[in-house]
Amino acid sequence: MQVHLRTRSRAIDYAFVNSAPGSRWWDAYADWTATERPCLHAVAEEGGGHWRVLLSGIPSVRTDSGGRLIYYTLVLEDSYDAAEQDAAIVLSLASYLLADLDEDEQGRGVLSGLLDGICPAAEVDRLLAAPSEFVMDRQDLTTRLLASVASLEPLQHDAQATGRGTFDRWIAGRSAPGASAAFLTRLSALLSGKEHGQAHLLNLVSEAEDVAELFPGRLAVLVEGGKVGDPTMPLERLPEPKAPSGLPAPAGSSGARPKVGWRTPMARTLLAALILLLLLAGVFWIFGVPF
To answer: CB burial class (10 A; 0-12, 13-18, 19+) of residue 283?
Structure first.
């Protein structure tokens, strides 16, 4: 299993401390979640041969030079036929992420302590300041990281109150009765290759309508609820998307995501040209230059 750890130091911006994944596939979900808040993406689509999981927004005790809380991001990838232990590690991480959120609105808890122990401030400063150096130290950090997360035992969450967690597509608040257990059950099926689809803990959605076009296949969504939405929202079925136009861009794609077409390079160029044209027109008008 590949595991990548991202954080920042007091002065150096966010980057992967040990190694970087091949693509920023999670950017396709930027309209539905912000990685600085607790969130989780699990993608195990048919034909891919492997699963990908991101856990982010795990708070550190460290702060940056502006006093802002520093957070961690974990990216894990493996094939469907990987060792059961790898799937167990991801399930443990997911279960602790949800449990930590139940105890603290910012998500500070077991995972925070574990990652802060692996990444003392001095080591983060040193590794981020020299991205191409300290190869052996980065490998050692990865070894220690894997050993630490492998030592976690999965937590037991309350069993789902009804059978609605077996819906192909559903959404619920993360603290709704049975929602966390149903989510972890779906995640387990995705990691083992028994099912294909996606599972997400999202922090920028508040209702079923917000995720109606997120993904057309099997989909489980928990509403994080720290800043947006109700974490106790009852579990409900999600309808199938009406059209494929709203799907997130494929991993590694440069295509625009829903609601953010203005962020594309072409759109920004056209906007800049329009602003410049208006400024020139204003100057000509002020000085009476015909145009």
So the answer is: exposed
